[in-house]
Amino acid sequence: MGWKHLRSFAYTPASVRQNAPAASGVYGIYTRYTWIYIGESHDIQARLLQHLNGDSPCIQSSGATMFSFELVPALVVAARHAALVQEYRPLCNP
Predict the structure, then answer these.
(1) pLDDT digit string (tens) for 37-90?
(2) What is the Cα Rg of the chain in Å?
(3) How many angstroms separate the CA atoms of 65 and 29, rounded?
(4) What sign does the CA torsion over 62, 57, 13, 78 have?
(5) 3-state class of 28 per DSSP?
(6) Which of 32, 41, 56, 77 has a CB 3.0–4.6 Å from the CB of 47, allowing a cystine?
(7) Which CATH class is domain 9-72?
(8) How many CA atoms are closer than 13 Å to the CA of 94, on its beta-carbon side?
(9) In terms of Cα–Cα distance, which of 78, 73, 84 is closest to 29?
């Protein structure tokens, strides 16, 4: 099914603060060629900032340069996350 309305943003603290919402949804961290990690959160901005602060060695060492997100209601965020992980098979998702 893929991402809905995929928009790319720089994976930097300033860009996350400016572009990522403090809302429920799924997000992806990637390079130009590879999906690194797809996550879910009730606060996308806060979670991306945690990743940028080094909470995942895999993401930290990946060379990630971009992120995207999709707003998803909390009741269905887990199912949407699972579908995206299955489709894209990111490097740092278990």
Answers:
(1) 999 999 999 999 999 999 999 999 999 999 999 999 999 999 999 999 999 999
(2) 12
(3) 8
(4) positive
(5) strand
(6) 41
(7) alpha beta
(8) 1
(9) 84
φ, ψ of residue 15 in degrees (nearest 5): -70, -40
Token representation of residue 42: 């009730």
E strand segments, 17-81: 25-30, 35-41, 66-71
3-state secondary structure of 78: helix
The single-letter code of the amino acid at 59 is I
- The angle formed by the CA atoms of residues 88, 65 and 33, to the nearest 5 degrees, is 45
For the sheet with 66-71, list strands across it: 9-10, 66-71, 25-30, 35-41
Cα distance between residue 48 and residue 29, in whole Å: 9
Residue 20 — φ and ψ, nearest 5°?
-85, 135
* Angstrom distance (rounded) from CA 9 to CA 69: 9
Token pair of 21, please? Answer: 């919402």
Domain boundaries along the sequence of the chain: 9-72
Give the phi and the psi of residue 36 in degrees, each rounded to 5. -90, -50
